[in-house]
């Protein structure tokens, strides 16, 4: 799971902190991050929820075709979204909805 270390670091979490959030030993988490161990489905889902991402992203299963023509924009906007505080996320979503509403009004 190549993305695991990157996602953990983006959230400024140590291995010990993330392991604690998941309720597992740090040594177990280290094995998962290094690829030396395999986690069960429930832990994988809990990890995705904790890191506010999808299981597909954790498993590096995101496919550009699923984003239609926005092959660069969708991943980039998700990186921006994840880096924002909850308050700023709400503002970003409201702004996006405003853009969509304005587009609808023009048509």
Please give a structural write-up.
The model has no long low-confidence stretch (mean pLDDT 84). The termini are far apart. It is elongated and about 55 Å long. α2 (15-22) crosses α3. With 107 residues, it is an all-alpha fold. The chain has 7 helices and no strands. It has helices spanning 2-10, 15-22, 26-34, 41-50, 55-58, 73-83, 86-106. Helices cover 67% and strands 0% of the residues. The chain has 2 domains: 1-62, 434 Repressor (Amino-terminal Domain); 64-107, no CATH class.
| Number of H/I helices | 7
CATH class group of the largest domain = Mainly Alpha
CATH superfamily of the largest domain: lambda repressor-like DNA-binding domains
Principal-axis shape: elongated
What's the gist of this structure?
With 107 residues, the chain is mainly α. The chain folds into two domains: 1-62, 434 Repressor (Amino-terminal Domain) (Orthogonal Bundle); 64-107, no CATH class. 67% of the residues lie in helices and 0% in strands.
Keywords:
434 Repressor (Amino-terminal Domain); 107 residues; mainly alpha
List the helices and strands and how they pair.
Blueprint: H1 2-10, H2 15-22, H3 26-34, H4 41-50, H5 55-58, H6 73-83, H7 86-106
């Amino acid at each position: 799971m190549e993305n695991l270390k990157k996602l953990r670091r983006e959230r400024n979490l140590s291995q010990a902190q993330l392991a604690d959030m998941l309720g597992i030993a740090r040594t177990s988490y280290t094995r998962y991050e290094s690829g030396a161990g395999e986690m069960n489905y429930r832990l994988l889902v809990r990890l995705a929820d904790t890191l506010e991402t999808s299981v597909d992203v954790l498993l590096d299963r995101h496919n550009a075709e699923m984003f239609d023509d926005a092959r660069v924009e969708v991943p980039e906007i998700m990186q921006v979204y994840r880096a924002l505080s909850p308050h700023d996320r709400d503002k970003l979503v409201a702004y996006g909805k405003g853009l969509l509403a304005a587009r609808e009004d023009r048509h």
